[in-house]
User: Which sequence fits this backbone?
């Protein structure tokens, strides 16, 4: 340090968002003795699990893996009750975490951050909120979520509708009364696949408006007996380590064989085994080339389509429900009773119910909203309630909802006009001291997101501790290292079938005008962790570190970033987080 005074700040670190990511970030920052505050637009903690209260909402990574691991006491005291926890249970868990670690006192609820401006001479960020507050912080962490910016229904004439309508991510607080009603559901992604079986139990008639069918694996959900949970907790360190080193962030052994190397009968047996085990990786556990070889992928597709044909009694409906894209390249869903019930009490095979009707809006698009319902090219459907399960402006939406201006006043939106660019999905060149959690270019939505979140938060915390210990107050991704990382991410993706799914939200295809770029890092959690760890161990290669008060070029140590690991083919990267 050159001894010149730093510009005054209110906070060492401003964190935006109080979901899984923001809560753990706050906890770690406090541990470092930094003055930190979280700004959350909602009235409570929970993020995804606060907002998504639609019927049927639950995680599709097993509860015991979809949770924090940083505190053994927290692990031991929380009792998950089902293999896949419901939304209310996950929200209770996050509220418990907030209470247990006394986090609420440093969270400003009902506070939407609208703008972030980097004050270059002061080397600090000016955080502006919708309420007109302005706060200076030395560093900012964006924990705004990958699936938190709601994609609104694209019907300009929606106000004509005489009934109620709801977006699944903005479900009414007290629930929606669907009993005896005619309900239309627009969309057949993960959310609709969770919600439809529950809605069909209440409604008098349900119309499902489907553009693209999706693959869905049976959840094989069940209660978690306390003894089983105790056993999991006892061996948790190894379980979590296996998850951290795996591709998908769940404790699975990597597959060893190609689907094309085994006889058809054996292949079928392995798929059936996965199906009976259930879960998001039911089929992708089996073989190395599931995500990389069209012919291998086809064998899994056919297996999944056969299952649909075997469950859904009306052959025409079954055909409409059979997806044709490469399995796994759009987010694979997990269901309880959308296709199969596995004799769970109270569940039905939804498409075999007489009051559920599937409408193909690819061949007969929705032409508009009418006062009484929805009109398609082939007719009008009378509805009392419309449920829009149309998802999010994923991965970049919540980041770009904030007017972020970095060095020289350049906006993040302009910098990302051709698609997002980051180093490690953590930082962007031109935006010093600004971190993203599970940003584009990280495994994020392709992984168990809590595993990825913990790793990102730990990386950021270690980085801030490193800076503090050396009297440094500035870190910025170099443009060269950022370009190298973008190329690395693209090369990994191009070695798989993922970029061939043109209608996926992984490439922004659900948002008109969004650049079509495959955004996540496909190399898997374990590989990513090693690459990010090596960068840190070598003193943050690819980042410029320095003190803002001195001449940046003299002090900043700009590393080439040329030592990124070589690109290789992703083995069997999986596909959780949605
Ligand atoms: C229905 C659903 C089910 C899911 N199931 C799984 C699953 O099974 N497994 C899995 O790995 N992932 C799943 N996900 C992904 C899930 O989003 C992540 O697992 C995880 O909850 C993300 O935590 P987060 O803290 O990063 O973001 P979020 O939980 O999205 O929290 C971000 C917070 O930031 C706030 N925020 C955003 N912008 C601003 C702003 N400008 N100002 C102030 N506050 C702001 C939001 O209000 C929100 O509370 C699911 C997502 C959805 C929608």
Assistant:
């Amino acid at each position: 340090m050159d001894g010149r005074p730093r510009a005054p700040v209110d906070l060492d670190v401003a964190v935006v968002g109080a979901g899984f990511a923001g809560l753990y970030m706050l906890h770690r920052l406090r541990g470092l003795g930094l003055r930190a505050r979280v700004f959350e637009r909602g009235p409570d903690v929970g993020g995804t699990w606060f907002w998504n209260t639609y019927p049927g909402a639950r995680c599709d990574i097993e509860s015991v893996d979809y949770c924090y691991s940083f505190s053994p006491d927290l692990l031991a005291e929380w009792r998950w009750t089902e293999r896949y926890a419901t939304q209310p249970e996950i929200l209770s868990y996050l509220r418990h975490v907030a209470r247990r670690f006394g986090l609420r006192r440093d969270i400003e609820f009902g506070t939407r951050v609208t703008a972030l401006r980097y004050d270059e001479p002061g080397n600090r960020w000016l955080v502006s909120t919708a309420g007109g507050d302005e706060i200076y912080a030395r560093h900012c962490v964006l924990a705004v979520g990958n699936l938190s910016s709601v994609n609104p229904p694209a019907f300009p004439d929606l106000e004509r509708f005489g009934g109620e309508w709801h977006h699944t991510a903005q479900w009414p607080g007290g629930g929606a009364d669907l009993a005896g009603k005619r309900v239309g559901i627009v969309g057949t992604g993960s959310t609709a696949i969770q919600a439809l079986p529950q809605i069909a139990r209440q409604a008098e008639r349900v119309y499902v408006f489907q553009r693209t069918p999706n693959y869905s694996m049976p959840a094989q959900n069940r209660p978690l007996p306390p003894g089983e949970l105790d056993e999991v907790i006892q061996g948790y360190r190894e379980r979590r380590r296996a998850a951290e080193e795996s591709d998908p962030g769940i404790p699975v052994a990597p597959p060893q064989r190609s689907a094309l190397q085994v006889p058809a009968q054996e292949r079928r047996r392995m798929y059936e085994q996965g199906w009976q085990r259930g879960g998001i990786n039911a089929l992708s556990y089996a073989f190395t080339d599931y995500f990389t070889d069209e012919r291998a992928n086809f064998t899994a597709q056919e297996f999944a389509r056969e299952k649909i044909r075997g469950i859904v009694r009306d052959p025409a409906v079954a055909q409409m429900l059979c997806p044709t894209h490469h399995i796994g390249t759009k987010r694979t869903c997990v269901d309880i009773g959308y296709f199969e019930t596995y004799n769970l009490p109270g569940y039905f095979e939804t498409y075999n119910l007489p009051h559920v009707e599937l409408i193909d809006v690819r061949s007969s698009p929705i032409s508009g909203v009418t006062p009484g319902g929805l009109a398609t090219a082939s007719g009008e459907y009378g509805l009392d309630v419309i449920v829009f399960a149309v998802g999010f402006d994923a991965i970049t939406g919540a980041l770009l909802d904030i007017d972020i201006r970095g060095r020289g006043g350049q906006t993040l939106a302009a910098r990302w006009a051709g698609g997002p660019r980051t180093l490690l999905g953590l930082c962007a060149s031109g935006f010093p001291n600004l971190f993203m959690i599970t940003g584009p270019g990280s495994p994020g939505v392709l992984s168990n997101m809590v595993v990825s979140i913990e790793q990102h938060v730990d990386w950021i915390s270690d980085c801030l501790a490193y800076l503090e210990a050396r009297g440094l107050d500035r870190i910025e991704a170099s443009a060269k290292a950022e370009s190298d990382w973008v190329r690395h991410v693209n090369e990994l993706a191009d070695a798989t079938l993922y970029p061939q799914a043109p209608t996926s939200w992984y490439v922004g295809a659900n948002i008109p005008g969004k650049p079509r770029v495959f955004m996540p890092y496909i190399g898997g959690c374990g590989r990513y962790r090693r690459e990010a760890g090596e960068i840190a161990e070598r003193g943050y290669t690819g980042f410029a570190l320095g003190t803002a008060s001195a001449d940046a070029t003299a002090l900043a140590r700009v590393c080439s970033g040329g030592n990124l690991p070589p690109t290789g083919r992703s083995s069997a990267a999986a596909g959780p987080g949605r």
Summary: Residues 16-22, 39-42, 47-48, 52, 57, 59-61, 66, 112-113, 143-148, 191, 398, 401-402, 437-438, 448-449, 453, 576-578 surround flavin-adenine dinucleotide (CB under 6 Å). Residues 52 and 169 are 5 Å apart (CA to CA).
